[in-house]
Amino acid sequence: MKTKANKSLATEPPVWFITGCSTGFGLELAKQAIEHGYRTVMTARDPSKLEGYGATDNVLVLQLDVTQPDQVTAAVKAAQARFGVIDVLVNNAGIGYFAAIEEGELAQVRKMFEVNVFGLTAMIQAVLPGMRKQRSGCIVNLSSLAGLRGMPALGQYNATKFAVEGLSEALRREVAELGIRVMVVEPSGFRTDWAGRSANESAHQIDDYMATAGNVRIQVRESSGHQPGDPVRAVKAIVKAVASGNPPRHLLLGNDAFEGAMAKLDELRKDFTAGEAVARAADFPKSKAAASV
Question: Is position 161 annotated as part of the catalytic site?
Fold first, then answer.
């Protein structure tokens, strides 16, 4: 049920707030939101890269490093001051890192968690008060096939995206009754800069992992710019899902994403079924009195 505030805003274009708009999915999302006539907040750590986009009243360009709490607060307040509400938050900002688990440099891993997990969380916390007040909104969290399946060389990145998956699932259950929707987007390989300059790798590489993590690292680097995924088609799917008013909980994008997710389901079912007897035997035995109730 919509409130009077929602009804008064129903004739106005929705407000999309997108993080990480300098390249890749973020930039394409902003472009398509603008093309749809949506009021759009484009953010980047270096807003000079978005020069020219803020020339219209319907577009607001802001500086935003999601790891800086003051910038998060200021950006959300600026968006609300300009447009009154935030209808859609897209948590797109994120970085990658390639390393076998043993190779991972703690400073690099912490940096990735700060962006991919804590920055995303800060954005959600900043927009939720407004969404709760208006009893509507949609939060789109960019995860990855790596949020569903672990891969050599991506272990710490997997950890950040598995965190996004768990956070999103809990959040969805917390806010559904408030009219707020949560969608997780899980792409496979797309032609963005994620595997290029945007992702660092461990400086110290161990020969024993060359056949596993090392090989994956080389393959991912060499595939940059040649991935099968089309960012334009992917973003159209995201925009369409949000515009439907009832977005799916999970939006897989790419053949590899679908096949990889289904394979993971099969693996889990096989492992869980094989361990069913052990799982069920771990509880205290039911007493005869309890069993008869």
Answer: yes
